[in-house]
Amino acid sequence: MRFLPHIFLTYLAVGLHLGLGALLSVGSAVAHLPWIAAAFIAMTVPPASAPLAALIVGLLVDCVGTGAIGVNAVGYALAGLVVSRMRTTRFEGWLIALSAGAVIVGANLWLNGLFRADGKSLLGALGTILLTILLGAALSWPLWKVRRRFLINDSRM
């Protein structure tokens, strides 16, 4: 039951991303709500579990998307690893960790697009990174205020 808020946040982010994707896009750049949720979850679970939690969010994004299964999951897991290593108790550190992860996810989207005919261009990937960081910064303050409800402390760590 400790993971129930994380599951709810993940499904909410993926659902909003699918439903509002056209509204959250500028040209070929799309803000990634699931990455913002994955970064927040990676900051609230124990550091050893953060890449796994981000991987699960990435797998969910892959399952509802049109691409190959596992491509987003690997990018999300790498970004979750970076976020877990940048653990912070300050809001500014959270924004830096969110930005670092968004760069990894955007680079993954661009590299994945090189092998597909309908993939993102480099400018589209950079726009995706920028939009995700801007939307993440706007959503971070409310998430930061309720993070105590999401924290999972592992006494074995």
Describe the model.
By secondary structure, this protein is mainly α. The chain has a single domain (4-149), classed as Arp2/3 complex 21 kDa subunit ARPC3, CATH 1.10.1760. Helix content is 68%, strand content 3%. The radius of gyration is 15 Å and the shape is globular. α3 runs antiparallel to α4 (71-85). The model has no long low-confidence stretch (mean pLDDT 80). β1 (25-26) and β2 form a beta hairpin. The protein contains six helices and two strands, in the order αββααααα. Strands 1-2 form a two-stranded antiparallel ribbon.
Question: How much β-strand is present in the residues?
Answer: under 5%
Secondary-structure-based class equals: mainly alpha
| Count of helix runs | 6
Strand order of the largest sheet: 1-2
In one word, what is the shape?
A: globular
CATH class: Mainly Alpha
CATH topology: Arp2/3 complex 21 kDa subunit ARPC3
Find the count of extended strands (DSSP E, 2+ residues): 2
Question: What is the fold's blueprint, element by element?
Answer:
Elements: H1 4-19, E1 25-26, E2 29-30, H2 33-44, H3 50-64, H4 71-85, H5 91-114, H6 122-145
Antiparallel strand pairs: 1-2
Helix pairs in contact: 1-2, 2-3, 2-4, 2-5, 2-6, 3-4, 4-5, 5-6
Comma- or semicolon-separated keywords:
single chain, 157 residues, Arp2/3 complex 21 kDa subunit ARPC3, 3% strand
